[in-house]
Design brief:
By secondary structure, the chain is α+β, with helices and mostly antiparallel strands. It folds into two domains: 260 residues, no CATH class; 205 residues, Orthogonal Bundle (Serum Albumin, Chain A, Domain 1), CATH 1.10.246.130. The chain has an eight-stranded antiparallel β-sheet. Strand 13 and strand 14 form a beta hairpin. Helix 3 runs antiparallel to helix 4. The N terminus is likely disordered. The structure holds glycine.
Length: 611
């Protein structure tokens, strides 16, 4: 039997074939990963270590070491491709992007193809009924931050989710009233028009084919359907729960209504969604269930093009998402605090957990109290992202003791713990362009509402507003007036698509995540693992993660990921530890010698595909 390596090499040389790996919903890598370029590897060093070591512009990678109790091994390989790479939570969608890349499309063309394909193959979060953010870095040095977050409908009001007694209802989560005006189609079309090279019709072909001809449901999607309680309540149940039974893995899912909608968008651009029969279907669906999105809301939707937050960290440059997402500000603030130490503490040590968690804790205090839609409130962006402010915050960190959040800020209120919903994808091309995109319906399967006749799910993004400012909502979420509901306003997000440039201003890393507030800390840690600890991308993605969001005032760790002695030290320092099975769902690409490495989230499903 041929080993993978010679087969791959032969393929690389002779047929220029695609490279892919996938992970199943079990969280264990299962795919036929094509991961190597020729060259012997020191045991345990990871393939990227050898590649990086030979290129003076790429820092050598250092083998990682994880606790024995940790479920992932260090030293695994990543998917390698010499030209271009796409990584997402759906291997089929990554393949769609690679098709476009192989046809000569750039990373923006491929990212838009991937976004539409995800709406078909990963409908719990990939979407046309939600919104998202895209960071673009072009080979010529131009950058862009596209904000296509949903907005509150014009009939929305501050207290719309309170009952007559002033208590919060669940209408911001489930059903027709939970949706903001979708931004995904307008945002992706804008990105393509401004920065792509192909037509919408061209890049949407893979998605249309997947919807029209169907695809086979894998274990990850089957499990997601099984657990999608809200979906059972609305019209989409006819497709996803035929006869009341959830679609099982191995079943072919054909979505003719969605295919028709995608055809309309491909033919007419955003007008195919925001006007005409698709818009009419959406509004008719609203009217059936007491929703308030109107035809005028749809016609008025406009994405915003903003300037990425550009920060530096130990000689690298980060391009991250500005408000209406909190991702870039919060990550920048935390990294600036960490940079006040001349070097990072050893990865996985008690000191490392202490410093990183202390930085996140302080950044989240500002995140939760000072951020919101910049079109509606004034955001102290410069101050929050400045090195001098970070130095002030650092001065408050006791090197030996955790600081209770209420000592740092006595007014701080709790945020909820959010499940791993949302979805992120990263794309790079052979021209040197890179795209990081995060998109969401908010909760998995959004509000549960499925637009009859048009075949797509709607978001429940209105729950990302402070539905009752100053008071906890049904999930314990308490936020301030900055994020109160107002017509036309964008709800604050945690989505953190990020591109890291090396000291020569070349794209080094493209990353982002799903998982509510853990998006920020998860994305940050993959970046820190690569920049501070010189891990290979495979190790950086498998490394145990932590999360702190100020309140609840606990340090979330991954089960089995922290050595018992380190846990004892952290408790002795005053940290309240909260173990969780898995934290965050990241999809990332890293430049290595001769090409790109891609890794989809080992804790979730996905695929890295390149050529
Ligand atoms: N809906 C999750 C987020 O935007 O952060």
């Amino acid at each position: 039997m041929l080993s993978k390596w010679p087969l791959t090499f032969a393929c690389l040389v002779m047929c220029g074939c695609s490279y892919s790996s996938s992970t199943s919903g079990t969280g264990i890598a299962t795919g036929t990963a094509v991961q190597t370029t020729p060259g012997a590897m020191p045991a345990g060093a990871g393939r990227g270590a050898a590649r990086g070591a030979a290129d003076p512009r790429i820092a050598p990678r250092v083998p990682a070491s994880f606790p024995e109790s940790w479920r992932f091994a260090a030293g695994e390989s990543a998917t390698f491709a010499p030209n271009a790479m796409a990584v997402s939570n759906s291997e089929l969608a990554s393949r769609a992007a690679n098709q476009i890349l192989e046809r000569g499309g750039n990373a923006v063309d491929a990212a838009v193809a991937l976004g539409f394909a995800l709406a078909v193959t990963w409908p719990e979060a990939g979407n046309i009924g939600g919104g998202g953010y895209m960071i673009i870095r072009l080979a010529d040095g131009r950058t862009a931050a596209l904000d296509y977050r949903e907005v509150a409908p014009s009939a929305a009001s501050r207290d719309m989710y309170l009952d007559s007694a002033g208590n919060l209802t669940d209408r911001s989560v489930t059903g027709h009233l939970a949706s903001g005006v979708p931004g995904a189609v307008a945002g992706m079309a804008r990105a393509l028009e401004r920065y792509g090279t192909m037509t919408l019709r061209e890049v949407m072909q893979p998605a249309i084919a997947l919807a029209r001809d169907g695809f086979v449901i894998d274990t990850a999607l089957a499990s997601s359907i099984r657990n999608s309680e809200r979906t059972r309540l609305f019209a989409g149940a006819s497709l996803f729960f035929p006869g009341g039974v959830p679609l099982a893995s191995g079943t072919r899912l054909v979505q003719p209504e969605l295919a028709r909608t995608l055809e309309a968008i491909a033919a007419n651009g955003p007008a195919g969604f925001y006007r005409g029969w698709v818009a009419d279907s959406l509004v008719a669906e609203m009217q059936r269930g007491g929703g308030i999105i109107s035809l005028n809301d749809l016609r008025s939707y406009a994405p915003r093009e903003r300037r990425p937050i550009q920060s530096t960290y130990r000689g690298f440059t980060l391009l991250a998402m500005p408000p209406s997402s909190s991702g870039g500000v919060t990550m920048t603030e935390a990294h600036n605090i960490l940079e006040t130490w001349p070097a990072s503490a050893k990865y996985g040590s008690a000191q490392w957990y202490h410093t990183v968690a202390s930085a996140y804790q302080r950044a989240f205090i500002d995140r939760n109290s000072k951020l919101g839609d910049p079109d509606f409130i004034s955001v102290p962006l410069e101050r929050l992202t400045s090195k001098s402010y970070a130095a002030q915050l650092r001065a408050g960190i006791n090197p030996l003791r955790a600081t209770p959040t209420r000592v740092v800020d006595s007014t701080m209120q709790a945020l909820p713990r959010e499940p791993m919903n949302t979805t992120h994808y990263s794309v790079t091309d052979s021209f040197g362009n890179a795209v990081a995109t995060t998109t969401t319906l908010n909760g998995s399967w959004g509000s549960g509402v499925w637009v009859r006749g048009a075949g797509f799910f709607l978001n429940n993004e209105m729950d990302d507003f402070a539905a009752q400012p100053g008071m906890p909502n049904m999930f314990g979420l308490v936020q301030g007036e900055q994020n109160a509901i107002a017509p036309g306003k964008r709800m604050l997000s945690a989505m953190s698509p990020t591109i890291v440039l090396d000291s020569a201003n070349q794209v080094l890393l493209v990353a982002g995540a799903a998982g509510g507030p853990t998006i920020i800390t998860g994305t940050s840690q993959v970046i820190l693992n690569v920049l501070d600890h010189r891990m290979t991308l495979a190790d950086a993605m498998r490394a145990p993660r932590l999360h702190h969001q100020a309140l609840p005032d606990s340090l979330t760790i991954e089960q089995g990921g922290v050595a018992p002695a380190v846990q004892d030290s952290l408790r002795a320092m005053g940290w309240s530890l909260r173990p969780l099975r898995a934290l965050v769902n990241v999809n990332a690409i890293m430049r290595v010698r001769g090409g790109w490495e891609g890794v989809s989230e080992p804790r979730r499903s996905g695929g890295a595909v390149g050529h």
